[in-house]
Design brief:
The two termini are 17 Å apart. Strands 1, 2, 3, 4, 5, 6, 7, 8, 9, 10, 11, 12, 13 and 14 form a 14-stranded mixed β-sheet that branches. 45% of the residues are buried. The longest helix has 14 residues. α1 links the parallel β1 and β2. α2 packs across α3, α6 crosses α8 and α7 runs antiparallel to α8. It is built from nine helices and 14 strands. The protein is an alpha+beta fold and 308 residues long.
Length: 308
C-alpha cells in the first residue's frame, strides 16, 4: 500500500494535471494506493502524523508536491523507523529532489523509481530548535537565519515568482528577491558555537544557512560539497563585508564558486548554536519558523529511509 500525499495546488496550478496522469499510471499498473489531499497550510503534517501512526511495520508515503509539502510531511512523521518516503516533484524549486539526484521534470520516471525501490537508502535530516521556547522543526534541505530566510519565506507570495514560473524561469525569482532584500535588510552581530569548539564572533552577518544538501532557492549551490548522507550539516555564512561587495559576489554564489571569496565562511559540523544581537527570521526548507535570536542547528544522521 502506498499513501500518496498530493498537493494539487502546487507548481502554479500545474500539479493537478500531473497528478491525474500519475493516477492513471497507478491504476494501469494495478498498484494499491490511497490518496490524501491537504486542504490548508499545515494539513500535510496532520496527514503524515495519522499515516505514520498506523499499526504497520512498512509504511510507504509518496509526496506529490514541492519542498514545502515535503517539509510539512517530515514534521508530521511520528516514527521514522517504520516509514519510507518517495517523491514525485511538482513544485518550482524542487531542491530536495535535486539533492537526491532524482528526476525533477519526468514524473513517470520518478514513479517508476519509487515502485521499483527496495527502500534501503537512508539519508540525514536536520533539526532547528529555537532555544528561547524549545520549539523545533525538522528540515530536509536547509534551515537559515537572515537574508536567505527572509527571501525563502516570502518568495511563495511574490508576484515575480508566479510570473516567472509561468514562463518556466521560476528559479530566477530567488535571485531577484535576494538582491532586493539585501539592500533593505539590517545585518547582525552573532556568536557561533560549532560542536564543542569555543564560540566564534562575527559582525555584519547577512545570512547563515545550515545545509543538508548543497542547494536551496531553486538550485543555488550554497555548499557545493554538501551530501545528504555524511552525518554532518554544511554551513554557509556571509558576514564581515559591506552589502555592495556581497552583491558583487552574488554571481559567484550562484555558480558555486564562492568558497574562497572574502566574506563567505563555509564549514561542516554536527551542531551549531547561533546567538544574535537582534532577532531575524528563521526558516526550515523555506517555511517560516519565526523571529529568533538564539537557535540550535543539528544533524539527525541516517534518519529518513527513501524510496529511490
Amino acid at each position: 500500500m502506498y499513501h500518496f500525499i498530493v498537493n494539487v495546488h502546487g507548481g502554479s496550478g500545474k500539479a493537478f494535471l500531473k497528478w491525474n496522469k500519475m493516477r492513471a499510471l497507478l491504476r494501469a499498473k494495478n498498484v494499491e494506493f490511497k490518496v490524501h489531499v491537504p486542504q490548508r497550510v499545515g494539513h500535510a503534517t496532520e496527514i503524515a502524523r495519522n499515516i505514520s501512526s498506523l499499526p504497520e511495520d512498512d509504511i510507504k508515503i509518496v509526496i506529490v508536491g514541492g519542498d514545502g509539502t515535503i517539509n510539512e510531511v517530515l514534521n508530521g512523521i511520528t516514527d521514522f523507523s517504520r516509514v519510507k518516503m518517495g517523491l514525485i516533484p511538482t513544485g518550482s524549486g524542487n531542491d530536495f529532489t535535486r539533492g537526491m539526484k532524482l528526476p525533477r521534470h519526468n514524473q513517470k520516471k520518478a514513479l517508476d523509481i519509487i515502485l521499483k525501490s527496495k527502500g534501503d537508502t537512508k539519508i540525514d535530516l536536520g533539526r532547528s530548535t529555537v532555544l528561547s521556547t524549545g520549539d523545533s522543526r525538522i528540515f530536509g534541505i536547509s534551515s537559515g537565519f537572515g537574508l536567505d530566510a527572509i527571501v525563502g519565506t516570502g518568495i511563495n507570495e511574490a508576484k515575480i515568482k508566479k510570473i516567472l514560473n509561468w514562463v518556466h524561469l521560476g528559479k530566477l525569482s530567488y535571485a531577484f528577491l535576494t538582491v532586493q532584500t539585501l539592500f533593505t535588510m539590517k545585518t547582525y552581530s552573532v556568536s557561533l558555537k560549532f560542536d564543542d569548539d569555543a564560540p566564534l564572533f562575527f559582525n555584519k552577518l547577512i545570512f547563515l544557512a545550515a545545509m543538508n544538501f548543497k542547494a536551496e532557492g531553486g538550485g543555488v549551490p550554497m555548499t557545493p560539497k554538501a551530501r545528504g548522507d555524511d552525518g554532518e550539516l554544511s554551513i554557509c555564512m556571509a558576514a564581515g563585508v559591506p552589502k555592495f561587495l556581497t552583491f558583487l559576489l552574488f554571481p559567484l554564489l550562484c555558480m558555486g564558486l564562492h568558497s574562497h571569496s572574502k566574506g563567505f565562511y563555509l564549514r561542516n559540523c554536527k551542531s551549531l548554536v547561533l546567538e544574535s544581537d537582534s532577532k531575524s527570521i528563521l526558516h526550515t526548507d523555506g517555511e517560516l519558523v519565526g523571529n529568533v535570536d538564539k537557535v540550535k542547528f543539528e544533524v539527525l544522521p541516517q534518519k529518513l529511509t527513501m524510496l529511490v
